[in-house]
Inverse folding.
């Protein structure tokens, strides 16, 4: 992947676009491309933080495994999404697994190069604090869902989050299609595929979404957003 191809993908992130231009150039220069195949580990829970990543192509799945051995999906990272920054700041091991959901190209800035950039450019700290705050707000919204929303509301919220991206970098329009299985949505919601299928069919009957094999298409974005509150 050429540098001229990398920059437009990175610019999909409002957070990255807000960085000073000279910092952007140094981040890109310090980064190296890494290819991972479907199912391959990017890093594992309890690993030491080896670097900061950005998805160039494909999709990365962040998840944990329960004591019963069941995978609980946290979210997916798609083109333009950065991840792996928390361990670089607190020095603690990774808090989750990261797997390639599809063949991926990742941009990686090693922990050594990342720390050197912070020393040379302290102005980076408030920018990364803003990225971390976005993660915290997303986490709080998940906690709010657990206690206050119906399962249908949670499902609508997850569909919307996946469509917008963690950094809300993707403008959501009617006709936006997500490539995601019902089993994956069920794992995100800690529910069964049968229950999620029933709710998806209800949303389709309400003309909020259309459901196809392995895909969900948003038909009425405003109605979907309203249903996130129920």
């Amino acid at each position: 992947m050429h540098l001229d191809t990398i920059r437009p993908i990175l610019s999909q992130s409002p957070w990255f676009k807000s960085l000073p231009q000279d910092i952007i150039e140094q981040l890109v220069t310090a980064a190296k491309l890494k290819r991972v195949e479907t199912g391959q580990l990017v890093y594992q829970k309890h690993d030491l933080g080896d670097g900061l990543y950005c998805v160039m192509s494909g999709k990365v799945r962040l998840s944990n495994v329960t004591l019963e051995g069941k995978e609980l999906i946290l979210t997916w990272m798609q083109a333009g999404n950065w991840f792996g920054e928390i361990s670089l700041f607190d020095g603690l091991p990774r808090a989750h697994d990261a797997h390639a959901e599809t063949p991926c190209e990742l941009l990686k800035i090693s922990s050594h190069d990342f720390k050197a950039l912070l020393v040379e450019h302290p102005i980076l700290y408030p920018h990364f604090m803003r990225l971390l705050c976005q993660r915290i707000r997303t986490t709080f919204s998940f906690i709010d869902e657990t206690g206050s929303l119906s399962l249908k509301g949670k499902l609508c919220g997850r569909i919307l989050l996946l469509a917008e991206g963690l950094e809300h970098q993707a403008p959501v329009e009617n006709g936006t299609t997500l490539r995601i299985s019902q089993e994956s949505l069920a794992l995100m919601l800690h529910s069964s595929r049968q229950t999620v299928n029933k709710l998806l069919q209800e949303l389709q009957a309400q003309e909020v979404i259309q459901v196809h094999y392995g895909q969900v298409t948003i038909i009425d974005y405003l109605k979907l957003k309203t249903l996130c509150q129920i």
